User: Fold this.
Amino acid sequence: MSDQEKRKVPVPKEFTAQQFTPQTEMLQVQHKPEKLFIGIPREITMQENRVALVPSSVATLVANGHRVVVESGAGEKSSYTDHDYSEAGADIAYSAEQAYKAGTIIKVAPPTLEEIDLMHPNQILISPLQLPIINADYINKLRQKRVIALAMEYIKDESETFPIVRIMSEMAGISAMLTAAELMASTSGGKGVLLGGISGVPSARVVILGAGIVAEYATRAALGLGAEVRIFDNNIYKLKRLQNQVGRPLYTSAINPHYLEAELNFADVAIGAMHAKSGRTPIVVSEEMIMNMKPGAVIIDVSIDQGGCFATSEVTTFDKPTFVKHDVIHYCVPNIASRVARTASVAVSNILTPILLKAGSTGSIEHLLFNNFGLRHGVYTYKGCLTNNYLGERFAIKSTDLDLLITSNL
Assistant:
């Protein structure tokens, strides 16, 4: 064998000459982000006065290439006209059917069963999940429609807090205390007690359950009016934080039934301000405790949208916001922030708009769910499956891990 033949390197049969030829460089293809199609229906339940997006937010979304359709009259109760939305670039729909053709539906009240009938598969629904008013039929309808439903109150931000709950809680805390002051007046059926103190007359006594944002703003309002405040929470860190935020010593206690009952016996106002991270709020005030409260005392259960923390709480509406049980006035309106509809609408809109803009740049809300744990935390139905364990246990419906579903769908 010659030296030249020895120097030849044999090519294995499994490789071809073409495979040794330099290939054209392939760059990653960037898919053009999809533009969102957002629908804002008019709210028809629970005397809801808020609207999910205000005209200034609509203008921002339209300027970024997204399409927004607003049902006629959706902003009226928040003092926004159809003309305001039209000038911001929104399409005005003159029927709910038109609004529900959008790929993303945003509401500030849960949709009714009739509204769910108007929805279509793979549609995104962003709305509150008010536990006392939903049932198994509600969940099953969303599943049958294969809707991706997100609960506003369970959406988290980067700091692991609930931004919509926080901003609504700020308003609810102030509104709760002002409402209590109103209900204590003789003209509202109360005992004619002034919430604030005056010279020579003892101040009204307020008991607040919970030490979160609702409690903080309710405490500020109560102290500003001159009332005495008692705060109960099992989280000592929250009690310390609240005391530091208010900037003065406060009466605080862990939720010990003995101490709590003693304070409720002399309370003029009791505020339920507890929030559950998922599922129902715990009932910390028994019916027996309420029976021992002063006649004419007022209960404001801000936690009613998650079931309430008083054993006697029942959902009420703005048509008939109160009821009397055991001589105690109960106020249990779940959308208490709706009393200040314009302020509340701007607040919700300010939180949702950046999420929608980020979803638009990512490609879609569904793609954003894959990378955003905080947004994913709000999902409770996903393309025919229930993904919230608490709802599954409550309504005896099988729940599935959302992470597995998203991984298999993307």
Observations:
- The longest helix spans residues 341-362.
- The chain has a mean pLDDT of 88.
